[in-house]
Design a protein that fits this description.
Layout (H helix, E strand, L loop, with lengths): L5 E6 L6 E8 L9 E4 L2 E7 L5 E5 L6 E6 L2 E7 L16 E2 L2 E5 L2 E4 L6 E4 L1 H4 L17 E5 L7 E5 L2 E2 L3 E5 L2 E2 L18 E8 L13 E7 L8 E8 L4 E10 L4 E12 L15 E14 L3 E17 L14 E18 L7 E17 L2 E20 L1 E21 L2 E20 L3 E12 L3 E14 L3 E12 L3 H4 L9 E4 L6 E14 L2 E14 L1 E4 L5 E6 L4 E12 L5 E16 L7 E4 L6 E10 L5 E10 L2 E4 L1 H4 L10 E4 L2 E11 L3 E8 L34 E10 L1
Amino acid sequence: MKKLFILLFFSVSGFSQVIEGKVTDKNQQILPGVIVFWKNNPNLAVFTNEMGNFKINKTLEDKLLIFKFLGYKTDSILLTNTDYFTKILQEDNQDLEGVVVKGNATLIDKLSPIHTEIITTKTLAKAACCNLSESFETNASVSVSYADAVTGSKQIQLLGLSGTYVQTNIENIPNIRGLASTFGFNYVPGTWVQSIDVGKGVGSVVNGYENMIGALNVELKKPEASERMLLNMYFNNFGRSEANLNLSKKINKKWAVGLLSHGSFLKTKIDNNGDGFLDLPKYDQVNFLNRWKYTSERFVAQFGLKYLKENRLGGQTDFEARETTPTIYGFTNHTTRVEFFSKTAILFPEKPYRGLGLIVNASTHASDSYFGFKPYIANQKTIYTNLIYQDIIGSTNHTYKAGLSFLNDNYDENYGAIGLQRNELVPGAFFEYAYNHLDRTNLLIGLREDFHNLYGNQFSPRIHFKQEFGQNQTLRLSAGRGFRVPNPLAEYFGNLVSSRAVRILEPLNPEVSWTFGSSYMINIKKFSISGEYYFTNFENQMIADLEHAEYLYFYNSEGKSNGQSALIELNYGPVKNWEIKLAYRYVEIKQTMGKPQGEKVVLDKMFLPKERILLNIGYAFPYDKWKIDGTLQWNGKRRIADMEASADHVSYYAMPSKMAPSYVNINGQISRNFPRFEYYLGGENITGFKQKDPIYKAQHPFSTHFDAGMAWGPVVGATVYIGFRYKLL
């Protein structure tokens, strides 16, 4: 069992009516947000502030002070007349107060009524995790796949639905959305990530209205609590090379600064299946984040600037650069993204449960792409602000958050003769009430109203409930509404690598859905088992119709449009240092198609496997000197287009389609740890399974039915990689 230390310092005066103290970790890093309360008076609970300090009123009848913090075992101190205390706490690898260790270093937030998995740095280290899109290999809830066989774009799925319905935040700021939904998961280097929260079902109203089926919140390395230096290098057998350098420095007690940097490239021509097209696009990327943090007793501020530039080139192997009248099919993309963020908070040390925070984010995203001879020029400018006030109602059992937000999205997209321009102005207001009874019964009720200049008022009510039974069983229920404005070209970017004619049949309305969910978890010393079920019903959904081989239609849904997802997951640690995860997931997504022919036909969504099995086994040698990890994923059959037959078929009734075969994907990694170095060697898709002919009519890229957007499985064979991490604490 690893030991995790917290030092607790108290200044106690026999004549004072107030106990003051500070909470830090073993490295004397401050721990804000620790719950401090008297054993017999939990209603007098306070929280440590951003400096790790707290003040709590003394009581005559109670001298036992309790400390609770997410990820640390609850402990207590019996106060006497001693002026100074040091307390050592140990990590509980089975059942932490605040989190439950499920295995594979994936945690469940035990205190939250929202079903939230926490992917830690330990999980991320089980694979190369070069970027966010590669950070879910051992996760049963999130799946990642290539969107096509040319651009290298990846898409995620949660609860069986596209990642566009998942609100992806970077430190609680909406980030991977709009134009960034195309390659955005490639824009967050894995070395920058501290943890990832995976929330299922509708989320909190505090962060906006776009959370429809779940939320990802990515916490990055903090300058005040990170390694002074972290260097990570990665190389694979295809020629992909990456370098990451994280630097941080505490300037003084109040100021800290961090620099996160990334550079990567792939310049090798790879055509292992011999179809004349690159299996992976050549690319180069540079990515920087400079962040600062200021902390005082009553005021906290952090701000930073991000810059990214990426170039991609794909298509036929002889293609080198864009041509005005191409005879060789090629794909190019040039993206530049600049982002500024700031988060400020006013603290009330005498009432640590109270706070006022302001989040400001501004970004520009410019993308210049060519598909053969078709240009796609897109620009997005975004301003986002969120003002949040939090306080209690009577006692810390009843808390609330209230605030105002504003979002301005300005889009300018041009694809051939199609022009999509809009300027969204969305002020909003929200209120969220939370009830907590002894951390066993939790209720979260949120109400949100947004005033959209283009689509009118949008009301988003949401509710979450959590109940613990005994010490080891937890039930969660959730329900709520979400909405978003779709971006058809950016979200179906990979389908533009084709000869399909794009037709937007009508003005696209916002997508609106209601999601209902439940989960039940049993956690017993060596194992945990959980089951969950979620159902999403769309009031309106943008339909991307790929049924006919010659067209890509976009239109609003009319009729049945819903999805359901069920998951059973077992985590087991049979003996010390062993971890086993086994999960089975079933999803079913139904859509009403046929508007181009005036028909209404309910069909299964294409390219979505209904079944998936995940098995992960990990072993760590004593003192974590060696670590071995292996993951097997079985992906079930899925419906795909029958390109030959559908070209001559008009009616959606009995529209020709076929089933892609199931396949197995195996990944593995072995790593060796030293005090400052870590070396790792791994493989992905070890069995070398590849989709046969992922590009339809590859030999005739300018023909009527050419299509590279029909990828449903791996397009490259086995990948072998090697790398190292070097740390200075």
